[in-house]
Design goal:
The protein is mostly helical. It is built from 10 helices and no strands.
C-alpha cells in the first residue's frame, strides 16, 4: 500500500470512528428509553427513599429531594428526550421539506417573498419562538413543546431544502427527464428528493440535538413536560437548590444531556463524511 493510500485511509478511519461513537451514544439513549417502557429500577412516583440520599447499592445515583430514585428519573428523561427530538424533527421535516420544494418551483416574486419570510423566522430565536407557542396554549405540555420546536425547525429545513432543490433543478438531467415526459411530481420523487436527502439527513441529526437542548431549557423554565413526566431540564432545575449538598442531582442529568447531544453531533458529522468522502481528504 502506498503512502497516498494510507493518507486516504486515515480520514476514513477517523470518520468511521466518529460515526461509531455517535451511533453508540445515541443507541444507548434509545435502548434506555425503550427499556423504560417495560422496566425501571423503581416506580417513578415512588418516594419511599430517603431525601437526597447519596449513591448506594439501593439507589445507584441517589435520590432527589422528594425521595424518588434518581436513576429512574434520568432513564425516563431519556425517553422524554427521544420523544421530543423525534417528534420535533418529524414535524419540522414534514413542513420544511414541503415548503422548501414549493419555494423551489415558485415564481421569482413568490420565491423571494418565501425566502425573506424564512430568513426572518430563522433569525427569530428558536427558544423564544417555542416559548411563545407554549405560552399561547392552555397549559405547558410535552406535545405543545414538540409542536413549538417542530415549527421552529421547519423554517431551517425549508430554507435548506429550497437551496438544495433549486440547485438540483438547474442540472441538465432534469431537462432531459422533463423532455422524456416525466411530470414535475415525478421529477421531485425520482431526482430532487434522492439528491438532497443525504444533506437533509445530516441537518435532521443536528436539529434533533438542538431540539433536545431546547426542550431541556423549556422544562428548566417550567414550560416543558409537566410532572410526573421526567425531563432532564426539570431535574436540573430541581437540583439547583441542592447543588452543593447533593451535586450528583445536577451532574447526572447534565451528563446524560451532554452525551446525547454530542452523540447526535458525531452522528451528523459521520453522516456528512459518508455522503461526501472527499471532504475528509481535503482537510
Amino acid at each position: 500500500m502506498s503512502a497516498q493510500d494510507l493518507s486516504i485511509d486515515r480520514p476514513a478511519r477517523k470518520h468511521s470512528l466518529a460515526l461509531s461513537i455517535g451511533l453508540a451514544l445515541v443507541g444507548l439513549n434509545v435502548a434506555v428509553a425503550l427499556l423504560t417502557l417495560f422496566w425501571t429500577p423503581y416506580d417513578p412516583l415512588n418516594a419511599s427513599g430517603g431525601r437526597l440520599e447519596a449513591p448506594s447499592l439501593l439507589h445507584w445515583v441517589g435520590t432527589d429531594r422528594l425521595g424518588r430514585d434518581y436513576l429512574t428519573q434520568i432513564m425516563i428523561g431519556a425517553r422524554t428526550a427521544l420523544i421530543v427530538g423525534t417528534g420535533a424533527v418529524a414535524i419540522g421535516a414534514t413542513i420544511g421539506v414541503t415548503l422548501g420544494i414549493l419555494a423551489a418551483f415558485a415564481t421569482r416574486l413568490l420565491d423571494d417573498v418565501m425566502a425573506a419570510t424564512l430568513d426572518i423566522l430563522i433569525a427569530f430565536p428558536t427558544l423564544l419562538l417555542a416559548m411563545l407557542v407554549v405560552a399561547a396554549s392552555d397549559s405547558a405540555s410535552l406535545w405543545s413543546a414538540i409542536l413549538a420546536l417542530g415549527l421552529a425547525i421547519s423554517a431551517i429545513v425549508a430554507r435548506l431544502t429550497r437551496i438544495l432543490a433549486k440547485r438540483v433543478l438547474r442540472q441538465d438531467y432534469i431537462v432531459a427527464s422533463r423532455t422524456s415526459g416525466t411530470s414535475w411530481p415525478g421529477v421531485v420523487l425520482r431526482h430532487v428528493l434522492p439528491n438532497i436527502w443525504p444533506t437533509l439527513s445530516v441537518n435532521f441529526a443536528l436539529q434533533f440535538g438542538l431540539a433536545v437542548i431546547a426542550e431541556a431549557s423549556l422544562s428548566y423554565l417550567g414550560l416543558g413536560a409537566p410532572p410526573p413526566n421526567a425531563s432532564w431540564g426539570r431535574l436540573l432545575q430541581e437540583a439547583q437548590g441542592t447543588v452543593y449538598t447533593a451535586p450528583v442531582g445536577a451532574i447526572a442529568p447534565g451528563i446524560a444531556l451532554v452525551a446525547l447531544v454530542i452523540g447526535m453531533n458525531l452522528l451528523a458529522d459521520g453522516l456528512r463524511d459518508v455522503g461526501d468522502p472527499t471532504r475528509g481528504r481535503s482537510r
